[in-house]
Amino acid sequence: MSPTLHPPRHNAPTDASSEPTEPARRRFLQSAAAAAALGAAPHLRAQNAPDAAPADTATPAPVPAQPVHLTINGRDYALHIEPRVTLLDALRDYAQLTGTKKGCDRGQCGACTVLVDGRRINACLTLAVMHEGQRITTVEGLAAPNAPSTIQRAFVERDALQCGFCTPGQLCSATACLTEFAAGTASAATADVRTRPSELSDAEIRERMSGNICRCGAYANIVAAVRDAHSAGA
Asked: What is the 3-state secondary structure (H, E, C) of 37-60?
């Protein structure tokens, strides 16, 4: 009779070997803690890294002032200013002609418009030293000694202002606008820029005055005032 074959039996581990011993558990926890610490080390080093050395913030040497001679409203001014002073600041802070206003100081609003040799410019975008020997006219120089100019009178009659902050620049720009039209200068609104514009229409006035912003919105009255001054022969 052949012997009966029984499948091998695997001895189940005893309770003592089913759980890691206390020293093994301790080593496992220590290894896990060490791995976590190594993983966090780069982040901690990045957080605790010393700040980069500050850039050299030494104050640059001041630019020496120099004499500048300007002709403003027919009068000679001898100013002692730095070469980087704008014409706007020279007018307001040194010549004490505060009619010219500082609006945006970026050449966008037109409040600082003045006339240089009869042409309008933004005084905030040019340096005072660049205009020696030229004729500068501000709003203070538009009127005759005892009477306002035609365009100034038209602005008053048409109530072409509200807060008045932009008005000096508007008046200087309108003066140049009328001069340019009388000289036959075309604009973007002229039907054929190759020919002399025949009529100073409202569209022409709006285009020619578009560099001057009125935040109060008195545009309709400004256009009317320029039209009236033109009709009066200004």
From this structure: HHHHHHHHHHHHCCCCCCCCCCCC
pLDDT exceeding 70 applies to what percent of the chain?
82
- Residue 178 sits in a domain of what CATH number? 1.10.150.120
Position 20 in a domain: no
Q: CB-based contacts of 71: which residues, under 8 Å, 6+ apart? A: 77, 133, 134, 135, 136
pTM over 0.90: no
Cα gap 90→66, rounded to integer Å: 13
pLDDT in tens, 38-76: 665 555 555 555 566 666 677 777 788 999 999 999 999
* Total domains present in the chain: 2
Domain assignment present for 205: yes
Q: Are residues 226 and 154 in the same domain?
A: yes
DSSP 119-139: EEEEGGGSBGGGGTTSEEE-G
- For residue range 105-139, list pLDDT tens digits in order: 999 999 999 999 999 999 999 999 999 999 999 99
Quote the CA–CA distance of 149 and 151 in Å, as a whole number.
5
Query: What CATH code is carried by the domain that includes residue 117?
Result: 3.10.20.30
> C-alpha angle 220/116/65, rounded to 5°?
125
Residue 50 lies in a domain: no
Asked if residues 107 and 113 have their Cβ atoms less than 8 Å apart, the reply is: no
